[in-house]
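TEACHING EXERCISE
Course module: macromolecular assemblies
Task: Read the component lines below, then compare them to the predicted structure of the full complex.
Student: A.B.
Group: 4
Components provided:
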Amino acid sequence: MAIRERLSGNEAVATAMRQINPDVMAAFPITPSTEVPQYFSKYVADGLVDTEFVPVESEHSAMSACVGSQAAGARTFTATSSCGLALMHEILYIAASNRLPITMAAINRALSGPININADHSDTMGSRDAGWIQIYSESNQEAYDNFIQAVRIAEHKDVRLPAMVCQDGFITSHAVENIELIEDDKVKDFVGEYYPENYLLNSDQNLSVGPYDSPAFYMEHKRLQVEGMRNAKRVALEIAEQFEKMTGRKYGLFEEYRLDDADAAIVIINSAAGTAKDAIDKLREEGKKVGLLKIRLFRSFPAEEIAEALKHVKAIAVMDRSDSFNNQGGPLNAEVKSALYGTENAPKIINYIYGLGGRDVKVENIEEVYASLFEIIKTGNTGETYRYLSVREQEAQ
Amino acid sequence: MEKKTNINETIVWQDITPGGDILASGNSAEFKTGDWRTDKPIVDMEKCIHCLLCVPVCPDTSIPVEDGKRLEFDYDHCKGCGVCAKVCPVNCITMVPEGK
Amino acid sequence: MAYNLKKELAKPERLAGGHRMCAGCGAPVAVRAVTRALKEEDKAVIGCATGCLEVSTFMYPYTAWKDSFIHNAFENAGATVSGVEAAHKALLRKGKIKDDYKFIAFGGDGGTADIGFQSLSGAMERGHDMVYVCYDNGAYMNTGIQRSSATPQYADTTTTPAGTVSDGKPQGRKDLAAIIANHNIPYVAQTTFIKNFKDMHEKSEKAIYTEGAAFMNVLAPCPRGWRYPAEDLMKMCELAVETCFWPLFEVVNGEWKLNYMPKNKLPIEEFLKPQGRFKHLFKKGNEHLIANIQADIDKRWEQLLVRCGEKSNIKETV
Amino acid sequence: MSKITEIRWHGRGGQGAKTASLLLADVAFNTGKYVQGFPEYGPERMGAPITAYNRISENKIRVHSNIYDPEFVVVVDETLLETIQVTKGLKKEGAIVINTEKSPEEVKGLLNGYEGNVFTIDARKISEAALGKYFPNTPMLAAIVKVSGVMPEEKFIEEMQHSFEHKFASKPEVIEGNMNALKTALQEVK
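Instructor-supplied answer key:
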């Protein structure tokens, strides 16, 4: 039977890590992910895991050590946030192109500057093209469940790519909430042991990793890497199905909430989705047909499936918790819009940048978003498509 | 263990090794750098005392050793730098222009 | 056991030919000398910072490395190999592997003393059981001879060109071996290619077979960057040692030891003269520049003699 | 949507308001509730005013925003009444609990005309009597449990006994003092 617990999001992923008992964990503290290596090093200190914990001197070295360790044949985890993820940036690409299935707990926090320790998605969105699988989590429960599944998705022979499991800094990472844990042995059985095909410490077969790659081969390597990312979508669903059998908790590429008959919908990621669900229930009681689509797997991006799920909607607000500074909107907006391109009678789409640097998102804020969508449906006029939610501004003259 | 590299510029992406991994250790020997040479070392085996001082100074691992004696140069890989000729205490290695 | 070149050369080579380093390059000579100190039966994983050595020895689909090998990036060979070493420890403990391995990282002076300095410092401080070898050729040779913190004073490099109002690199060399020695690791050595490689071999052997972190600073001349005739590789090393530009020493558990005392310390001109990168120093009117270099060499040499207990520091005041 | 009890804590960094909110989440969790306990984070250090929150419900909690219109407010340090508008958004059918030696009538003037119920408790006196030290947490926790009625008092006492036995396994001598502080607080809040 599931174990009823109350944990913060950080303790939840640390617990998943303990249950999996990786071979190596290399990490450097950065708010708000710091607690993850703290919890984990306590597990090491108390002999609850026999992992080699490498307390590196920077996130750059954390990711570098992860690359060395995973290439050596060891299942390797790390955790970071914000500037730490940015410092890893170069090596994120190397981990992915070397096809090393490292698993990371990414605790979302705004990127400097100005320096800010609170949640937004500018950190992981900045890494979106590094070749990592990205899975986003609304709650501590999802962060825990997703981490367990991510290890298997990453290591699957048809995928072989690193994965980051994202959740909102402080909002879920430091909030104690109810959670259902899975028994240790069940998690261990579900995730299994890591047996890579080739690895540096294989005494039967030496391996060289990380070549200089000339134009004659580079593109074939990249194309092969893309195939791993394409396969990630199928593999994520297969593993979600097995996970559901074990826990009864269902995961897909994304979650649809009261979307079936919705006229107005929002597309959203992470913790604010929960707040939005409360707003939806409230508006539904008022007879308004509203719903949401919460993206779980952002890399690879399930474009066709999203387009299919949204095609009946009249107006959509894509909610971005980071900006792209392209004067068009955020990264999620660009992806969702292009997913819907070519759809017959495509819905009208606007983009809201919200919640930057921990700006709180209330139920009422989400209600405002739906109100603007109904205005668009009513008038047929989309108006400004690039909008900021809850930003103080001069009133229009 | 793969003995010879079967990867060349006609390979399709489906067959290439993930991440550029290479399993055949030391297979660079299949790549001939001997044609980089403009000067060629010639060893006079009559004069050679097999002190082996020329062996460790070779950047290209091109002086094979067997039973404590140096063998003929590995001209497939020797780039003709001439470091070996300089360290030979009995001057048994001469550099001559390639092709002569 | 006493060093015997013949016996050492009977072992199989661990670096194959067919790599794309320049003719006469010092770096592969350093690699061969270090890896020769591995016992034949011992397995190793070699790591390498981006640089000439890496891009030339592992150009897809060819690797010159006969051992397992990993390249990650320019600035992180220390961290990368510490990750491999941590994996080894974990996998042995968990019974997933059986074999013992040795771990050696190679980096040029740029990847070691500059961009990779933090990663190296971290790896040494954490005490991973590995050897980090800096093959110092005194500039960023891979990108085309730009100055590094290990470039000697007044060297003409592509980012410190000698010109009408410039004498070349204004600053002196960073003393990398001393800095790493101050990490209080069990073994640090400075060496280069001398005669039958006895010094380098013995130091490599100690570095590899000392438990914990070890560091070697190896002068590896670059004929292209230094602008001397390629065949003079061994001569350049000899001059570097005889002029005390590159003293041979080791630091064993904090004890400094001088390994070679030149009978007649040669003037630094002997080392500078054959190198095109110092050509401007020999123009009339630039004598003071050479004097400056000589003064710096003398000062550092005296300090080293004191550190190594070859000379008492009578001027020392606290 | 089911009813969610929302509580806001005001304290100073280092006084344990965050810990108290987590403890409340803990005991409520142990009585079978769905809970949230979370502080509002900033880079502030010891002594700075801090805010922490609780949501307690019979049903799953999904909302992830701060709490703006709480039903209950707990003030762990009465000096905050001078500087912070502790009653902001506080529902008038709710209540505020303040750690002070004064009576509710005496502090009312500092509450910006708040019309709801005001409770006070001298957590310092209780803590010092029961524990010999000033730990306002424990009495404040008992006070809010009583005032909010989020769980029956007997159940609360029982859960706290378990909780302390676990928490202070290595120094059982402090359990009794803490339990006494709780019990006194339950009686003395007024």
